[in-house]
Amino acid sequence: DTGVSQDPRHKITKRGQNVTFRCDPISEHNRLYWYRQTLGQGPEFLTYFQNEAQLEKSRLLSDRFSAERPKGSFSTLEIQRTEQGDSAMYLCASSLGVDTQYFGPGTRLTVL
Amino acid sequence: GQSLEQPSEVTAVEGAIVQINCTYQTSGFYGLSWYQQHDGGAPTFLSYNALDGLEETGRFSSFLSRSDSYGYLLLQELQMKDSASYFCAVGRGSTLGRLYFGRGTQLTVWP
Question: What is the distance between the alpha carbons of residues A43 and B56, in angstroms, rounded to a whole number?
């Protein structure tokens, strides 16, 4: 039984660089979510896909952030022109229904 | 908007029972979930309540009162491995699937 996987697990980048993260959901799950979590806080919603359609984006997601889910399978989250404030854990989750989300291990981003 | 309130810290000893409360304010409430997160780990689903009442899963139980906008997570027979952060999260019908998380309760279990 494979859960949600994310790659890379850690990313260190310099301010102004672009970064891309990948999420592979549980295979039969049609819903995929991206959250961001900083120390001492709960996860904050970023965006959500049902199959390949991006149904909602948080106002937290500035125009430097973009997410895709081609063919309704894996998803990528790209951050352009990274800023120090982007340093956080980026979590991906997937679900079949609306009651239970299964989270991946996260990608920890550090922007120097 | 929406807000969730839960205690920031709770401590207890092994074998004890602890209750973590969560009050929420949101429109279009759909359901209340609980997640556990160990340091450096990912949130793990524990329980979900859409209707009033108690849901029991092993040592963990969760309760919801929709009229009071209140829920709690009850952990029984505490073990050292239960030391973690516990988050309540609400779902709204208008944004089905999206979860709004509280700031979490850090539970420390002492031997």
Answer: 25
Residue B104, helix vs strand vs coil = coil
Please compute, for residue A4, the number of CA atoms within 13 A of its CA located in the half-sphere on the CB side: 30
Residue B93 has pLDDT above 80, yes or no: no
- The per-residue DSSP string of B75-95 comes to E-S--GGG-EEEEEEEEEGGG
Determine the Cα–Cα distance for residues A46 and A60; give it in Å rounded to an integer: 7
Report CB contact under 8 Å: A45, B99: yes
Instruction: Determine contact, residues A106/A6, Cβ cutoff 8 Å.
Output: yes
**Tell me, what amino acid is at A25?**
P
Give the C-alpha separation, B16 to B75, whole Å: 8
CB contact under 8 A, A43 and B42: no
Interatomic CA distance for residues B14 and A77, integer angstroms: 41
Q: Chain B residue with minimal CA distance to A47?
A: B98
Mean pLDDT of A17-22: 98
Specify the long-range contacts of residues A35-40, CB closer than 8 Å, at least 24 apart. A35/A90, A35/A91, A35/A92, A35/A93, A36/A60, A36/A88, A36/A89, A36/A90, A36/A91, A37/A88, A37/A89, A37/A90, A37/A91, A37/A106, A38/A87, A38/A88, A38/A89, A40/B103, A40/B104
What is the Cα–Cα distance from A25 to A22, expressed in whole angstroms? 10
Q: What's the pLDDT score for residue A79? A: 97
